Amino acid sequence: MSASQDMPSDSDIPCGAPCLHGDIDLAAIRDAPLLRAVPDDEVNRLLARAHCRDHPAGHLVFSKGDKIDHFYLIVSGRVKLFNVTPKGKQAILKVFEAGEHIALIALFSRTAYPASCETLEPTRLMGVSYQALKQCLRDSPGIGRFLIGALVHRESEMLAQLAEIKTKTVIQQLGGFLMGLIDAADGPAEVTLPYARKELAAQLAIAPENLSRAFAKLAQYGVQAHGSRVEIADVATLRALYRDRA
């Protein structure tokens, strides 16, 4: 069985708990950006055809080249999309967090998954098959409008990230990411990186070796990295760097 068959199709015997089951965190599913604006009755129609399943870290959800038959909503945990280079090394394309969806756009293409997906930590996924989604759209065409809105939002985020890549230096991108982890407006701060270095590089769309150089260059702006722990001498200085006023 391929990894993409991990979630059951409508004709399969369910291998995960139905997403309307009592022990499923409906609030987490309902608060996901993909479903946040969808009316409750339409969300329930979708959840009635979806299945949730818990996976350990390192679980292969689907492989590049598998036939696309599900899209997934991350209820909790994190996953990575990756490809394998000709030399056999993983190239991480993107890390997705709880509340995000994966493979929805690809599902409509009805071809093959363009990358592989693996859990980074214990993760709960909600899977919706193509047939189930198609039935939902037939029964409740209005849900399609909300799904299109979510896809447009995803595209806007990608364009914003592309704009930052084009207009900010690598150390500015890293500085901006660190600022997103800080609550204080100024003064010293300390944060813990939520990702391993390789995953962080993928999130920033830079090479891992460039990330190491960026951390080294940030030292002159009062940023010191000690493994996953990062100390910032002055948040205002880091903000000025990001805004190109350092």
UniProtKB/TrEMBL annotation:
It comes from the Bacteria. InterPro entries: cNMP-bd_dom, cNMP-bd_dom_sf, Env_Response_Regulators, HTH_CRP, RmlC-like_jellyroll, WH-like_DNA-bd_sf, WH_DNA-bd_sf. The keyword Transcription applies. Residues 34-154 form the Cyclic nucleotide-binding domain. GO terms for cellular component: cytosol. Keywords: DNA-binding, Transcription, Transcription regulation. This is CRP-like cAMP-binding protein.
